[in-house]
Amino acid sequence: MSGERPKNKKMDNREKRDFILKLIIAVCSALTFLVIMVVAIVVVPKAVNLMNTAQRTLDNLETVSEDLKALELAEAIKNIEDDTARAMADVSDAMDQIEKLDVETLNQSIQELKQSTEELSNLFGR
């Protein structure tokens, strides 16, 4: 009988060790399950929200891109440049005309007009 006793003791030790290992595996599995559940409950909705926000942003970028294409910005800039060039040419022409004016003759004409109007005014008694 004493020969069976050590085998039972060895079996008891193995069974205890197996039980402890199985318990550790069960606890680790439960903790893993809890972590996965927390991730599923907390992280997944945030990730879905982030993906929705990213999609809205991409949609807005597409809209802006289409709007910019519709503006035909290059053509508008060219038109502005052409208008500016024409305006500058008109200003240059006006400056040339102003420079051509004979200021002395203009002043003399103004004085003569003033004298004529004074004479007419005196004639009509004003």
Summarize the structure.
The chain has helices spanning 4-71, 73-100, 103-123. It is mostly helical.
Shape: rod-shaped
**How would you state the average pLDDT, rounded?**
85
Instruction: Give the termini separation.
Output: 158 Å
User: How many DSSP helices?
Assistant: 3
Biggest β-sheet, characterized?
Answer: none
The tally of strands reads 0
Q: What does this molecule look like?
A:
By secondary structure, the protein is mainly α. The chain folds into two domains: 1-71; 72-126. The chain has three helices and no strands. It is rod-shaped and about 155 Å long. The chain starts with a helix and ends with a helix. The relative contact order is 0.03. The model has no long low-confidence stretch (mean pLDDT 85).
Task: Set down the secondary structure blueprint.
Blueprint: H1 4-71, H2 73-100, H3 103-123
Labels describing this entry:
rod-shaped; 126 residues; mainly alpha; single chain; 2 domains; 3 helices
